[in-house]
Amino acid sequence: VAQFQKVVDQYGSSSAGQMARYYMGLAQLDLKTPEAAKQAQANLEQAGNSGDAAVATAARHALANLALQQGNLAKAHELLLALTHQDSPTLPRAVALMELADLDRTYNPKEAAQLYQQLQSEYPSTATAEQAKQQLASLHQ
Q: Mean pLDDT across the stretch 67-72?
């Protein structure tokens, strides 16, 4: 964490500094203490507002996963839904759609079914479409 902090201190507003902030947030999550989790969330939120789209996307994805771990399904849904409106090398749109559908299957199966169908139509003849087909079939069992 300390070495990432050094990079953030020196290059905070640059892409390298924002990437270091993102990795520092991930490292803080690994510490598994309440204070570290609070710091991690703050760092990931700052990285999520970065001007570097790839870093921002990765950070928002990490925040969605953190919200899931904390049981905040509404926040996780909100973040994942926003991530479905972009396509990034750090999080392809298809992955964001699949994760959102998988989240929705527990409390909104109708929306999950629509997302699985959307994945099949937008990404035909891919492993993603096949996975969506299987998930949709298991949803109706």
A: 93
3-state helix/strand/coil string of 90-131: CCCHHHHHHHHHHHHHHHCHHHHHHHHHHHHHHCCCCHHHHH
At residue 129 the predicted structure's pLDDT band, cuts being 50, 70 and 90, is: very high
Reading the block at residue 71, the tokens are 């049981």
In our burial notation (b when 16+ CB lie closer than 10 A, e otherwise), range 6-24 reads ebbeeeeeeeebbbbbbbb
Q: What is the pTM for the complete model shown?
A: 0.91
For the stretch 20-46, pLDDT in tens is 999 999 999 999 899 999 999 999 999
DSSP string, 2-32: HHHHHHHHHHTTSHHHHHHHHHHHHHHHHH-
CA dihedral 85, 89, 91, 92 (to 10 degrees): 60
